[in-house]
Protein: NitT/TauT family transport system ATP-binding protein
Amino acid sequence: MTSTIETRPVAAAVTPVRFHQVGKTFGQGGKAVVALDQVDLAVAPGEFVCLLGASGCGKTTLLNLVAGLDQPTTGRIELNSSRPAVVFQEAALMPWLTAAGNIELPLRMAGVGKAARRATAAELLELVRLGGVGDKRPHELSGGMRQRVALARALASTTDHTGSGAGKPSLLLMDEPFSALDAITHDVREAVRLGQRVVLLSSRPGRVVREWNVDGLTDGAETGAVDEVNAALREVISSHAA
Ligand SMILES: Nc1ncnc2c1ncn2[C@@H]1O[C@H](COP(=O)(O)OP(=O)(O)OP(=O)(O)O)[C@@H](O)[C@H]1O
Structure:
């Protein structure tokens, strides 16, 4: 396992998202917080990239920039995708709608007919292993179950129903989506297992300090990668605290 990334050859035209020297500063003068600085990052089509860093290193800021919820202060973001779907730290479900109703919401907004909406919601509920709870409301579900409903809703919204994003890849942005999931506890192991690439950010300013290609590792290599990422993460956390 090498600690330097083998950057995949990505054709510029199909790269769903590419950061060019992106910086984001909140506030001005002495009180300014440089959240991100000179971030260069490209995500390949179909690639699952996990961002890791100390609390406050700029992960949410970076996702907000990709989602178009905020603008960079410097640099440029190239997006070649349909509208990104976001799963937030808090599930943010509509409390008055059932689980199925929440998943159907983006489909309803896209003008998808009732029968097709029902079928898609049922399929997505099965996918996130919540087949039996479509008629439950959020307060009747556990935190992990609510997060899975939010994931299913995001997946529903990444499907292009209008044709306006035709031919463009979709982007799914997840801010600590699995921290509330029932069976998964460890962020780094989770990132190495689920991701194809792990990107480590430093704190204030948030910069890309290291990347690992963690695609298709064997069990032994996976454990080695987890140890290596953990050590690097501890290093950025302690240098931030110093
Ligand atoms: N709207 C804002 N105004 C001022 N400062 C902000 C704002 N949003 C974020 N920051 C600051 O920018 C830095 C990055 O914040 P961000 O929320 O992106 O971190 P994070 O990596 O997502 O943190 P966590 O892992 O704790 O959720 C932090 O220092 C934070 O205090």
In short: The pocket of adenosine-5'-triphosphate is lined by residues 26-27, 33, 35, 53, 55-61, 204 (CB under 6 Å).
